[in-house]
């Protein structure tokens, strides 16, 4: 049996694991007919990883799980989140595992209704989540932590993410006032081996301990960045590469004076990037960018405001040297209006990654959050843990205008789902008046679905005032990858392998 045939069988096996079926056919089907007959079906199994929320004894954390109701999803299955060091009593093949199962932190009862769980203190572990059947398509979990005092005080939030093999984090720091950790969580039965590369303003930072980091099976490792290098850097890009296995990765950035938040990974390197949802009352915005390749990048910097796209005065372009982290202060770039930052090449396209460090408040009452470049909403995106008064949904259409549908789910404690449509003009950002479930009790999820027009990008801000400090956290809404393209029963899988 030749190598191509083996690859086709492997592809069929992978598709079957996600969708339940795949069939091979002798070669000869055209690419056009393959595109016409390939269907998108709901995924049947997915996993998410939530990092250890805090080292503070006074931290209070909420986990909120939500799966949209998806037509065609399997009618059975379950979803649950539990400590990374504990294995589920049911493995992926339905057999009992050898370890004793812990009680899940969150275990939703039905799609379409959020389920929440609470923890507190510094001993809360990282969580591993698995969803199957009707709970898998579009499964979303939000981790939100309130810390009343100390380094990183404020509101910290992150979307729990799927395991992967590569992550980029522009916007990290090893400056004196910052304490940044990269959290690595391994969901699998074998150890993972990870390399961490650090890039400052002058290029690669030397380190003797950042390569070959072992993350044991069903375990989580917080790595303090300033232990990897003796060269303090105000603006740092962190590159996590997995040699073997897979991990979840996120950076927890704690500032001694201005609070802290989670820095999620940037969208894949691209010549054009969008960072959606800068708060209208932001008092400071700092852009951090990095070009991973061997070519410098020259970028146009634009702000998509409610009235159209504008060029920030004095910051029309940004030059990013290859292999070096570049940063620029944009000040109060939004000037009292919602906005999204859009980066595009001035000439030839060079892939970059980027993120924004956003500050609200003044003096001793400042709080920070991050907006990494995010992927477009795509077919559908969801964010959980919304409240009636503390949530702001920002949507931008950087090119062509678009029409979207926003659905507010039932509440975790009761209420009825409701939907509303909005038109987003091209080149603008809108803080839309997202619907709230009627009879709301508890928190709810917001699902965004494009109806027509060009690509849209979105983010959600959670905000709360803590003793005069405008605490907040922002999460992007990339496509939830709730469906997968599956070949027709008579389709040649070699066509898909070329896509």
Straight-line distance between termini: 23 Å
Tell me what portion of residues adopts beta-strand conformation: over 45%
Q: How big is the Rg?
A: 22 Å
Broad structural category: mainly beta
Unreliable sequence segments? 1-36, 87-100, 493-499
Give the tally of β-strands: 37
Q: Could you say which overall geometry the principal axes of the C-alpha atoms support?
A: globular
- Count the DSSP helices: 3
Brief sketch in words of this structure:
With 499 residues, the chain is mainly β. It has 3 helices and 37 strands. Strand 7 (140-147) and strand 8 (154-159) form a beta hairpin.
Core attributes:
disordered C terminus, 499 residues, single chain, mainly beta, five-stranded antiparallel sheet
Topology (elements, then pairings):
Elements: H1 3-19, H2 31-37, E1 39-42, E2 45-50, E3 59-66, E4 79-83, E5 115-120, E6 127-132, E7 140-147, E8 154-159, E9 166-172, E10 178-186, E11 192-200, E12 203-204, E13 213-215, E14 219-224, E15 236-244, E16 248-255, E17 259-263, E18 273-278, E19 282-290, E20 297-305, E21 308-310, E22 317-320, E23 325-331, E24 339-345, E25 353-360, E26 367-372, E27 381-386, E28 391-397, E29 402-408, E30 414-416, E31 418-424, E32 428-432, E33 438-441, E34 444-453, E35 457-466, E36 469-476, E37 483-486, H3 493-497
Structural description of this entry:
- The protein is mainly beta and 499 residues long.
- Helices cover 6% and strands 47% of the residues.
- It is built from three helices and 37 strands.
- The chain has helices spanning 3-19, 31-37, 493-497, and strands at 39-42, 45-50, 59-66, 79-83, 115-120, 127-132, 140-147, 154-159, 166-172, 178-186, 192-200, 203-204, 213-215, 219-224, 236-244, 248-255, 259-263, 273-278, 282-290, 297-305, 308-310, 317-320, 325-331, 339-345, 353-360, 367-372, 381-386, 391-397, 402-408, 414-416, 418-424, 428-432, 438-441, 444-453, 457-466, 469-476, 483-486.
- The strands form ten sheets. Strands 9, 11, 12, 13 and 15 form a five-stranded antiparallel sheet that branches. Strands 18, 20, 21, 22 and 24 form a five-stranded antiparallel sheet that branches. It has a four-stranded antiparallel sheet with strand order 5-3-7-8, with no helix packed on it.
- Strand 35 and strand 36 form a beta hairpin.
- The model is unreliable at 1-36, 87-100 and 493-499 (pLDDT under 50).
């Amino acid at each position: 049996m030749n190598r191509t045939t083996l690859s086709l069988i492997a592809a069929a096996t992978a598709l079957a694991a996600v969708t339940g079926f795949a069939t091979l056919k002798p070669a000869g089907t055209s690419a056009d007919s393959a595109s016409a007959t390939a269907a998108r079906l709901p995924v049947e199994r997915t996993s998410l990883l939530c990092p250890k929320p805090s080292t503070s004894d006074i931290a209070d954390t909420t986990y909120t799980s939500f799966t949209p109701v998806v037509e065609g999803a399997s009618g059975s299955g379950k979803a649950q989140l539990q400590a990374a060091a504990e294995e589920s009593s049911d493995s992926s093949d339905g057999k009992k595992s050898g370890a004793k199962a812990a009680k899940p932190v969150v275990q939703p009862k039905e799609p379409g209704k959020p389920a929440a769980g609470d923890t507190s203190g510094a001993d809360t572990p990282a969580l591993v989540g698995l969803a199957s059947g009707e709970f898998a398509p579009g499964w979303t979990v939000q981790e939100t932590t309130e810390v009343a005092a100390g380094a990183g005080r404020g509101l910290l939030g992150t979307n729990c993410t799927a395991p992967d093999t590569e992550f980029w984090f522009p916007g990290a720091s090893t400056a004196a006032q910052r304490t940044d950790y990269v959290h690595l969580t391994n969901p699998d039965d074998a150890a993972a081996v990870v390399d961490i590369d650090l890039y400052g303003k002058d290029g690669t930072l030397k380190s003797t301990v950042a390569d070959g980091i072992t993350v044991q099976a069903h375990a989580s490792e917080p790595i303090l960045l300033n232990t990897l290098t003796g060269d303090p850097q105000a603006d740092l890009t962190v590159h996590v590469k997995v040699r073997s296995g897979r991990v979840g990765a996120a950076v927890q950035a704690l500032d001694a004076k201005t609070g802290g938040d989670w820095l999620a990974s940037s969208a894949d390197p691209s010549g054009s990037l969008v960072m959606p949802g800068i708060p209208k009352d932001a008092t400071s915005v700092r852009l951090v960018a990095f070009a991973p390749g061997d070519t410098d990048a020259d970028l146009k910097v634009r702000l998509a405001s409610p009235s159209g796209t504008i060029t920030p005065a004095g910051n029309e372009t940004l030059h990013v040297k290859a292999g070096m982290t570049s940063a620029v202060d944009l000040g109060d770039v939004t000037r009292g209006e919602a906005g999204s930052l859009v980066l595009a090449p001035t000439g030839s396209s060079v892939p970059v990654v980027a993120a924004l460090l956003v500050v609200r408040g003044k003096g001793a009452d400042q709080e920070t959050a991050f907006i990494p470049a995010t992927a477009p909403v795509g077919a559908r995106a969801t964010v959980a843990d919304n409240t009636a008064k503390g949530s702001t949904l920002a949507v931008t259409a950087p090119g062509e205008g678009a029409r979207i549908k926003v659905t507010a789910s039932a509440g975790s404690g009761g209420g009825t789902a409701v939907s509303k449509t909005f038109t987003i003009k091209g080149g603008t950002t809108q803080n839309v008046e997202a619907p709230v479930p009627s009879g709301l009790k508890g928190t709810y999820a917001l699902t965004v679905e494009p109806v027509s027009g060009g690509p849209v990008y979105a983010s959600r801000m959670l905000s709360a005032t803590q003793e005069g400090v405008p605490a907040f956290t922002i999460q992007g809404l990339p496509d939830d990858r709730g469906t997968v393209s599956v070949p027709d029963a008579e389709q040649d899988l070699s066509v898909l392998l070329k896509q």
